[in-house]
């Protein structure tokens, strides 16, 4: 691993890959600029391109340009990083709920995902299905939850037997389970997934306040640590904030459009403070904040609401002919012309900086989580990585490696188990197992599987999920069983020691 040199901070030569990032399709250029820096990329474990949506037929349309996606994947590949694109549920409320409720459409959707990952050579996939939480509503959660668990179980089997990683991104649960988005059943999907990413941001949206207060982060960490193996957990950390304009004095009337809320990146937050000659202060949440007042004057249009009108009782004319039932309507009332008004606005901004990102990384690592994932790579300043590089957290040195246990033969079934890992990454790695006749000839079986089975002998800093366990049905004969630890992107890595086995006649 190359030494990391940022702003005069030199890291150890040992790897420190506890950072991941989402690069959204609208921010590909700025995201690529971050991971194209080899010093920064040496802190990264994987990159997730938020580039795919969902369709009612279960397919996965691009929601960004194919050229932008290809460039972003190429940047990640050039740095040797795992590529795990994100699928965002872009369908209307109820659509994905209906897909998962039907066994056929559920299996079809899972197959579309696996086919995409295999066709593009991705290292895995990340699911960000937020509509369950924010579109379908809590009254549907009991209906959604069991189908969601079945879907994840099905998809996991398909992904792992293809040697691919399954990551899931969810909004959090906190207060010991009393608050938050329990529809995602963290504890029940945990055995089937390789990453669980918690979106611990957007605490304050409609009114001014911090984006991810540390007290909330701590409560989320406490809950998920008790329900999911900690080595599978990643803490979502924002590199954006918000700028609110609010009405300061209740007795005033503000111009149209004066009260607003805008999202700002970390970089834009610092620029906004400098533009107004302000020095941000550190809020108790760990984030930066600043405010100022502004007197504004502009037009205000207040429509005149027509009074409630009740039609008179039905009546007839002198020749007993019914009148037009739609003939009587309220008279049209026009709004008065706009008037000019003046009010005082209070501008309030909250946003993270490099120190608040480091605080959250330290909290995740202290809980033995895999690390953090940034939303979004490209919103931050490079000082973030100076702070992250200074953390003492280390993973083991060394190249990818693995080992076979002694294969076992029972009747016609060969069972192959072992350990495989890349010590710089805590991700489970793929292993390609090949069975050939001992006397030579073409392989009779070749499979690529994910080494994601729990193993007690896996190195502690990487978590226990680095074993593989695969069975083959063979005809009688002598065979050689060999394997390779695979590199990200499907390239063949170091070879495992080959083993000789015999399937006896009459088995």
Summarize the structure.
This protein has twelve helices and 27 strands.
Question: Secondary-structure blueprint of this entry?
Answer:
Layout: E1 5-6, E2 9-10, E3 19-24, H1 28-35, H2 38-41, E4 44-52, H3 66-78, E5 82-83, E6 86-88, H4 95-101, H5 103-120, E7 124-128, H6 131-136, H7 141-160, E8 165-170, E9 173-174, E10 179-180, H8 186-189, E11 195-199, H9 214-225, E12 233-238, E13 240-247, E14 260-265, H10 266-275, E15 281-282, E16 288-300, E17 339-351, H11 354-366, E18 371-375, H12 383-389, E19 401-404, E20 408-410, E21 413-421, E22 430-437, E23 445-450, E24 453-454, E25 465-473, E26 477-486, E27 492-503
Characteristic terms for this protein:
507 residues, alpha/beta, eight-stranded parallel barrel, five-stranded antiparallel β-sheet, 12 helices, disordered N terminus
Molecular structure report:
By secondary structure, the protein is of the alpha/beta class. 24% of the residues lie in helices and 32% in strands. The chain contains 12 helices and 27 strands. The protein has helices at 28-35, 38-41, 66-78, 95-101, 103-120, 131-136, 141-160, 186-189, 214-225, 266-275, 354-366, 383-389, and strands at residues 5-6, 9-10, 19-24, 44-52, 82-83, 86-88, 124-128, 165-170, 173-174, 179-180, 195-199, 233-238, 240-247, 260-265, 281-282, 288-300, 339-351, 371-375, 401-404, 408-410, 413-421, 430-437, 445-450, 453-454, 465-473, 477-486, 492-503. It has an 8-stranded parallel beta barrel, surrounded by 5 helices. The protein has a 5-stranded antiparallel β-sheet with strand order 14-13-17-16-15. Strands 19, 20, 21, 24 and 25 form a 5-stranded antiparallel β-sheet that branches. The relative contact order is 0.13. The model is unreliable at 1-12 and 315-321 (pLDDT under 50).
């Amino acid at each position: 691993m190359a030494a990391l040199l940022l702003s005069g901070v030199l890291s150890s030569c040992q790897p420190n890959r506890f950072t991941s990032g989402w690069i959204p399709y609208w921010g590909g250029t700025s995201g690529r600029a971050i991971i194209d820096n080899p010093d920064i990329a040496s802190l990264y474990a994987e990159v997730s391109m938020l580039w795919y949506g969902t369709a009612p037929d279960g397919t996965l349309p691009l929601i960004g340009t194919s050229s932008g996606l290809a460039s972003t994947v190429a940047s990640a590949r050039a740095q040797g990083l795992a590529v795990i694109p994100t699928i965002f549920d872009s369908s209307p409320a109820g659509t994905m709920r209906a897909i998962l409720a039907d066994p056929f459409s559920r299996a079809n959707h899972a197959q579309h995902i696996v086919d995409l990952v295999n066709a593009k050579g991705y290292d895995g996939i990340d699911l960000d299905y937020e509509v369950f939480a924010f579109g379908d509503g809590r009254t549907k959660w009991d209906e959604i939850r069991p189908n969601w668990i079945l879907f994840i179980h099905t998809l996991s089997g398909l992904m792992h037997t293809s040697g691919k990683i399954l990551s899931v991104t969810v909004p959090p649960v906190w207060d010991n389970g009393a608050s938050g988005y329990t529809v995602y059943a963290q504890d029940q999907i945990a055995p089937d997934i390789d990453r669980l990413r918690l979106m611990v941001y957007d605490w304050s949206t409609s009114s001014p306040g911090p984006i991810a207060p540390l007290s909330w982060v701590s409560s989320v960490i406490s809950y998920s640590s008790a329900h999911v193996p900690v080595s599978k957990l990643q803490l979502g950390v924002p590199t954006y904030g918000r700028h609110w304009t609010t009405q300061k004095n209740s007795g005033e009337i503000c111009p149209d459009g004066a009260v607003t809320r805008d999202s700002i990146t970390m970089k834009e937050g610092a620029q906004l403070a400098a533009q107004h000659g302000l020095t941000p202060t550190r809020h108790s949440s760990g984030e930066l904040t600043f405010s100022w007042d502004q007197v504004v004057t502009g037009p205000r249009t207040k429509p005149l609401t027509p009074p409630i009108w009740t039609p008179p009782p039905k009546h007839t004319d002198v020749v007993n002919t019914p009148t037009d039932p739609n003939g009587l309507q309220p008279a049209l009332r026009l709004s008065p012309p706009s008037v000019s008004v003046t009010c005082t606005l209070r501008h309030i901004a909250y946003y993270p900086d490099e120190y608040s990102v480091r605080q959250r990384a330290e909290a995740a690592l202290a809980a033995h989580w895999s690390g953090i994932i940034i939303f979004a790579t490209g919103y931050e300043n490079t000082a973030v990585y100076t702070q992250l590089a200074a953390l003492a957290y280390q993973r083991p040195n060394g190249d990818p490696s693995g080992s076979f246990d002694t294969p076992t033969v029972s009747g016609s079934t060969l069972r192959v188990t072992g350990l495989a890992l890349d010590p710089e990454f805590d991700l489970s790695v793929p292993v390609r197992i090949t069975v050939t006749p001992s006397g030579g000839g073409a392989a009779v079986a070749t499979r690529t599987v994910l080494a994601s089975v729990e193993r007690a002998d896996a190195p502690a800093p990487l978590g226990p999920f680095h074993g593989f366990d695969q069975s083959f049905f063979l005809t009688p004969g002598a065979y050689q069983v060999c394997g390779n630890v695979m590199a990200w992107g499907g390239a063949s890595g170091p070879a495992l020691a080959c083993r000789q086995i015999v399937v006896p006649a009459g088995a």
